[in-house]
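TL;DR need structure tokens for one chain.
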Amino acid sequence: MSAAPLKRKGRRRRSGTAKWHMSRAAINLSVVDVYQMETTACLDLLVEARFGSWNTVRCPSCGTIDKHMWREEEMRWKCGGCDSTFSITSETVFAWRKLKLQDLLAGALLWINSSAGQPALELKRHFNKTYNSAFTLQHKLREALMRGYNVGLLSGDIEIDGAHQSGKNSVEKRGRPQGRVKPKSGQPPADLTRATGTSRVKERQEQIREGVYDPDFHKKLPKDRRFFITVRKRSGTREQGAAGSRVAIGMIEDTKVAKSVIDKFVAKSESFLNTDTANAYEALGEEFIDHRTVEHGDELVGPNGENNNLAEELNFRFDRAEQGVYLNIEPKYMLDYAVETAFRADTRRLPNGTTLRVALGIALNVGLSKFWRGFTHGKHRTDELLDPHPRASPSSGPEKGRDPFSNARGRPPR
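>> reply
TL;DR here they are.
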């Protein structure tokens, strides 16, 4: 008897953004295209992103909008109102740039093309510039998104969730439902002092002294633990995900932090709130049209469809960036990377050239860089951008004249 022919399994159907990324429509600009551009073509792209057209150029000094006199040799405009001169990057995060326009566009496009994030060391290898050039270019783009993208109110069906990030044992909190801990009557709340060895006990006690108390889990958290708080608006269209995202970083997920984030990013009277059963949102939910909750200790979706899966999805994206790409995000700069992750999630279905134009349009219109001008000369941010209030944080990064490749943690910088 002849054996029955084997049935060939069909290809797995691509779903979600994977199908989009494999399509030709997902790519409308390549790095080769950028380096084949003449300087005038690069200028056209940047003028469109910043001003809209050559006829609506705005002078950064006096605000006059006109077709100003263009000086070809200097590659600068002369304002018809105040006679000042300015270039395409004047008064932007790229002011006083040393990169050519082709390098600036190529570096930004390479950063955009990396769907999960891109280490500065990788960008350095791609376009053969110094590590400092790659590092500051990426962070200027992140700063622009912080100031020009992670702003404004969302309304409609809103999901909010907080996730443990950074700090000792934070990975143990990820990827699994978190049940709330209720201390037994007559028993003191659990703490973090249980350790073996004198040095470990001292280390944990030091963390406890400087850390914060978690009201949900009834214990002290390490001093470098942070909470990544996500606010996402549902699009209302099947398989389209979120229509917009906002993010914040807090020391703890409590009512004070949650209220600050909601007041900053949500139009409460016009919105529905979807969260887990964290105590932080219990009272705040009364200010919304309705508050739907899901108990993640028991289920991911409630009996009536209650869930905050879009917020959880962005938490996963940030976990992937922190653990798989950047490896150790310093708490002081966590908001920078969080906003980058939110921007990548929201623009995941746009062609890469269109995403680049969106990012450049923001970066060219938020003004001068506040945090990264003079970074390699010892001028570093002195605040950690937390909700509800920033807090002072010691300067970090290379001091003036210090080799940027020195290993603080036994490995080269990323």
